Structure formats: structure tokens, C-alpha cells
């Protein structure tokens, strides 16, 4: 609830309260959001929590649950990386991501190192995803502004066509691209034509994203379902 309501500062207090709980119900940081569904006496004392965390199946279960939880939070905070997001929210999410590892490490400082590494490893991936998504969102908004400017699009297409006339130079570009991507020159040529056509059609950012997705799907089609798929991707 605190993440949904963008009350990011409560996360640190909640973690401190959970990972350092005492037998007495009066201990722990104050001013936390109330939880109507938590029964009295449901808080597990810290010593028992430490013992549970030493159990490998419990540790694996915690890691799996964290992955599911954090993925759900990413989809709540940034449901569509291409959709405009207010700069204040973007900055708040980035600050939140920057604080996560430190908050959790501090809250779990008295726990076994293996437990800390497991929990922090997952939250680190979560923080990295938030940073990556906010960066992509920033780039998406910059790209959207360019794509909505007809004169800039026409100028880009004109410049690209002029490069095409310098046949030898563009042949070198095609050769380098095919070597880097490890694909046939014919694929590079086809992508060049598709790129120009998409540019000429004054496509929106969403249409460009759809085109790029189709390119990736086509290139990876021969590796689908095979062990080589992750490396090719």
C-alpha cells in the first residue's frame, strides 16, 4: 500500500520494524501505516525469524516471493515505459531506487550474511530495473518530441537518403553492422529500407516500438526454444 500511495519513506521504517521485531508488541518504529488485517501477536520475534531464515527452503521461498512482489511493484509504478510520467514522480522513483539497498542492509544488519545477500540481491535487481525504466522513459519522451516534429523527421529522412548516395561509405556501414550483429548483409539492407519507410510514414513512438519489437522477433525466430536463445538475445 505504501508504494501504491507513493509513500516511499515508509519502506525503511517497515523493514526496520519487521526485521528487528521483539516479543513485545510495543517495540519498533512508530508512525507506521496501520494494517487492519494483521492480528494481534502476529509479529514473529527476531530470534525465531533468524532461525527460519537459516533454512534453505525458506530462503528460496523468500527469494521467489520477492521476485514476484518487486515485479508487481514495477508494473504498478511504471506500467508503460513509453507513457509520459511527471518528472517529479520519475525523480521520486529514482531516489527510492537509490535508497533501497541501504535501507534493507541496515534493517538486516544482525542477520546471517547469506540471508542478507539473498534479500539484498533481489532488491538490488529491483532497484536496477526502476533506474533502467525511468531512464528509458526519459529517452522515450525525448524521442516522442522529435517524432512529433514533422520538419525534423523530413530533415532526418533527407540526410539519410543523402548518405545513401555515397554508395561506398554506406556499403562500409552495412558491412560493419552485419559483422557486429552477426547477420547477413541482406538483413541489414532490409532493415535500412524498413527504417526509412517507417520514418517516411511519420510513425508515432508506439509504432516505432512495435516495429523494433517485430525486428527482434524476426531475428531471434531461428533461435526460439533452443539453448542458444539467451546468447542470441
TrEMBL record:
An example Gene Ontology molecular-function term: DNA-binding transcription factor activity, RNA polymerase II-specific
Residue ranges of domain RFX1-4/6/8-like BCD in the record: 1-232
Pfam families: BCD_RFX
Highest taxon in the source lineage: Eukaryota
Name this protein carries in UniProt: Regulatory factor X, 2
Species of the source: Mustela putorius furo (European domestic ferret)
Amino acid at each position: 500500500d505504501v508504494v501504491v500511495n507513493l509513500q516511499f519513506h515508509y519502506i525503511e521504517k517497515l523493514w526496520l520494524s519487521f526485521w528487528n521485531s521483539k516479543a513485545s508488541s510495543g517495540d519498533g518504529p512508530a508512525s507506521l501505516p496501520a494494517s487492519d488485517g494483521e492480528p494481534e501477536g502476529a509479529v514473529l520475534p527476531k530470534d525465531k525469524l533468524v532461525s527460519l531464515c537459516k533454512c534453505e527452503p525458506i530462503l528460496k521461498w523468500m527469494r521467489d516471493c520477492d521476485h514476484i512482489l518487486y515485479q508487481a511493484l514495477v508494473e504498478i509504478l511504471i506500467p508503460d515505459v513509453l507513457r509520459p510520467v511527471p518528472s517529479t514522480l520519475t525523480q521520486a522513483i529514482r531516489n527510492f531506487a537509490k535508497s533501497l539497498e541501504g535501507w534493507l542492509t541496515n534493517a538486516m544488519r544482525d542477520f546471517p550474511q547469506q540471508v542478507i545477500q539473498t534479500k539484498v540481491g533481489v532488491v538490488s535487481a529491483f532497484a536496477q530495473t526502476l533506474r533502467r525504466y525511468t531512464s528509458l522513459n526519459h529517452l522515450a519522451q525525448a524521442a516522442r518530441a522529435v517524432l512529433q516534429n514533422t520538419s525534423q523527421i523530413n530533415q532526418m529522412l533527407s540526410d539519410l537518403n543523402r548518405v545513401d548516395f555515397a554508395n561506398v561509405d554506406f556499403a562500409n556501414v552495412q558491412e560493419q553492422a552485419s559483422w557486429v550483429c552477426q547477420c547477413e548483409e541482406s538483413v541489414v539492407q532490409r532493415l535500412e529500407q524498413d527504417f526509412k519507410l517507417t520514418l517516411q510514414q511519420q510513425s508515432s513512438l508506439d509504432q516505432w516500438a512495435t516495429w523494433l519489437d517485430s525486428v527482434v522477433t524476426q531475428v531471434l525466430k531461428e533461435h526460439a526454444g533452443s539453448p542458444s536463445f539467451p546468447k542470441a538475445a
